[in-house]
Write a structure and sequence with these properties.
There is one protein chain. The chain is mostly beta strands. The chain has no helices and 17 strands. The strands form three sheets. Strands 1, 3, 4, 6, 7, 10, 11, 13, 15 and 17 form a ten-stranded parallel beta sheet that branches. Strands 2, 5, 8 and 9 form a four-stranded mixed beta sheet that branches.
Amino acid sequence: VNTNGGNIALTSNTFKLASTSRIDSNADNASNTTSLGTSGSIKLNNSLGSRGVDISANSGVTAALTLDSSSSDGSGGSITTDMNATNTAGSYLTDLSFIGSGVTSDNDGAVSLTGASFAINGDFVAKGKVALSGGESTSSATNIPNVSIDTNQSITDRGDITFSGYSLSGSSSRDYVLNTSTTTGKGGNINL
């Protein structure tokens, strides 16, 4: 899903990816090589409102997801999602990225992540003015106390967790678990 500065809003209870996907609110062309000008906002939320949306890849599919509202010469757009990354459709995502970067970090867009769990088989990246407030799960209308990012859903090497850009904030009412460990391969890095 691409726009050249337009806003994007997707609403559903579940998203099942059949291949690697990109949601980009500042795609100047099909290859998105420049990201010039004003970026639109991206909203990806559950239609029920009180629960997080469930995102996974179809069984046997290798799929990554990128939400990109960046601008290489202006301000990044906002990204708002109550996403929870799972394997409900059969497979975990291989990478998950939220990119709200602007031309400088002062121009970064707000990246608001209110999901409670991000379980993937690869790298987790969030760039911009990131608020990891968490709490919304896919199975309950009640907020849960923990936020978990786990990049070790396979038996091989683990992915990295990277936060960069203007800021990273959380909620004092949440416990945060960032897990890149492994018992059989190389553990991933955590970059804050």
